[in-house]
């Protein structure tokens, strides 16, 4: 044990001397490149995102991942000092004053470290860190009078607007209703500026009158109708996105709820199962539309109906949906825990459902920075993968989307979350070539993520090509998740505006702010 390590015996994490004195670490510290510092600690210490966050204190594992990916920077000297103290980096390497633990160990140092560890994860007094991406100058400014119907009708359904987030100009997609309703500020108070992409408010049409009672002998025909319609809507979503499926799902849900009021016995059990099935679909479509509150509401409704119906398979599938929502919020612990809870319902799971749950656990592990465990789980998921088929209507049940190509797309996503864009690019390319044509929504989302991977390896022309291919499709499909990824890539590409292909893309965005 070195003298430095001995002095830090009371600290939860001390990077080893071989890493501290490596040329890579010295170079990163000299540049105050905290993205590279965290990446080196994650890979070579090795330490998970959660372990790094706990050592630094007042930081979450999600923020560690954001720093590694370059989505957020470190500007506050107070945070730099916490990083030095948490990881055991001498002050001079980061151009900071000598740290308390570098000299004679002070009792107060350990006490201060413990106090940090028990404090809240977010420091309200800390200056906001700035994004490391560039800005897109020159986006057109449109003056709209909400009371003027001509102005309102002239607007496209999705508008790209320029706003300032954390002091830097960023492109944000926002739907027409939010823009006319002065809701931009409210939308930006969410977890990120792209929370504004909630297309589902525009998609869901007024509800029809509910049927309350069917004539005798028509119950079985109605149930068959709902089953067939569900498969049709699943296929519509896979082909065209949530914009073309969500209103139909809600129409069927409204009729089902009306029928439930007067149903009893076995007939009610069947209607409850169908209601849970449609509610779970509504949850997914709202999630894909970036309407997380509605997604959570319908997931809870699906869970309630599945519980009443005694449908263990659907109950476990609602846990899968909750795990997806947790991953979307970068809550690694909850995403992992809920995915594991799904797998405990083994007797109710088909092989594809099990594969979906296992790969979902892998995504949580990637968010947590656990590369080895993540890929071990993805390998395991392949053992239960669905057989690739071309219908895309879930005739074989929940999880039938979880084919080998889907799992490999998720592996590419995990590589990206693990800050390995080089591995992500090749994995995306191979998986996309094997993805069945019917899964167009999954294809465009993967292309948007591929654009970000290309940015990560500084292949800007390819990144611009992928982003351009995705933008128009994403706006038309209503997939807010895909649009969020595409716009993130566009914002990241702004720093490379000297590349002709990138400049062409930025000009196209400025000239066609509405898609």
From TrEMBL:
InterPro entries tied to this protein: TPR-like_helical_dom_sf
Bias kind Low complexity: ranges: 108-122
Positions of the UniProt region annotated as Disordered: 100-138
SUPFAM superfamilies linked to this entry: TPR-like (SSF48452)
Protein name (database record): Transcriptional regulator
Taxon lineage: Bacteria, Bacillati, Actinomycetota, Actinomycetes, Kitasatosporales
């Amino acid at each position: 044990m070195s003298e430095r390590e001995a002095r830090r015996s009371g600290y939860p994490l001390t990077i080893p001397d071989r890493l501290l004195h490596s040329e890579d670490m010295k170079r990163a510290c000299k540049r105050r490149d905290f993205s590279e510092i965290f990446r080196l600690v994650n890979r070579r210490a090795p330490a998970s995102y959660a372990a790094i966050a706990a050592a630094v204190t007042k930081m979450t594992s999600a923020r560690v991942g954001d720093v590694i990916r370059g989505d957020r920077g470190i500007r506050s000297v107070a945070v730099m000092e916490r990083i030095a103290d948490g990881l055991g980096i001498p002050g001079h390497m980061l151009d900071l004053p000598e740290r308390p633990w570098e000299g004679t160990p002070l009792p107060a140092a350990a006490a201060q470290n413990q106090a940090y560890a028990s404090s809240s994860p977010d420091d309200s007094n800390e200056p906001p860190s700035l994004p490391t991406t560039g800005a897109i100058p020159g986006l057109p400014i449109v003056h709209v009078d909400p009371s003027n119907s001509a102005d309102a009708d002239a607007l496209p359904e999705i508008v790209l607007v320029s706003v300032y987030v954390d002091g830097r100009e960023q492109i944000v997609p926002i739907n027409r209703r939010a823009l006319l309703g002065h809701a931009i500020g409210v939308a930006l108070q969410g977890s990120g500026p792209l929370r504004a992409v909630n297309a589902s408010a525009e998609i869901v049409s007024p509800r029809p009158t509910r049927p309350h009672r069917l004539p005798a002998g028509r119950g079985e025909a109605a149930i068959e109708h709902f089953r067939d319609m569900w498969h049709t809507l699943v296929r519509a979503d896979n082909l065209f996105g949530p914009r073309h499926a969500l209103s139909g799902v809600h129409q069927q849900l409204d009729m089902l709820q009306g029928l439930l009021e007067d149903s009893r016995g076995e007939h009610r059990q069947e209607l409850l199962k169908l209601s849970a099935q449609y509610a779970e679909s509504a949850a997914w479509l709202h999630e894909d539309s970036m309407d997380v509150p509605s997604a959570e509401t319908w997931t809870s409704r699906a869970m309630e109906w599945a519980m009443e119906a005694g449908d263990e398979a659907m109950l476990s599938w609602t846990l899968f949906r909750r795990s997806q929502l947790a991953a979307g919020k970068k809550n690694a612990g909850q995403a992992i825990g809920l995915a594991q809870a799904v797998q405990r319902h083994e007797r109710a799971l088909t092989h594809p459902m099990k594969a979906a749950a296992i790969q979902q656990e892998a995504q949580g592990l990637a968010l947590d920075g656990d590369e080895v465990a993540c890929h071990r789980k993805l390998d395991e998921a392949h053992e239960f993968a669905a057989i690739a088929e071309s219908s895309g209507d879930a005739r074989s049940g929940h999880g039938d989307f979880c084919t080998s190509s889907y799992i490999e797309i998720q592996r590419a996503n995990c590589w990206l979350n693990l800050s390995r864009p080089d591995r992500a690019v090749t994995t995306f390319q191979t998986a996309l070539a094997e993805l069945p044509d019917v899964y167009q929504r999954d294809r465009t989302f993967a292309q948007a993520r591929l654009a970000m991977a290309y940015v990560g390896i500084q292949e800007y022309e390819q990144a611009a090509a992928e982003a351009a291919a995705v933008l128009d499709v994403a706006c038309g499909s209503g997939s807010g998740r895909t649009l969020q990824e595409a716009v993130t890539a566009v914002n990241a590409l702004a720093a490379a505006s000297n590349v002709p292909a990138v400049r062409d893309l930025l000009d196209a965005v400025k000239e066609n702010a509405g898609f």
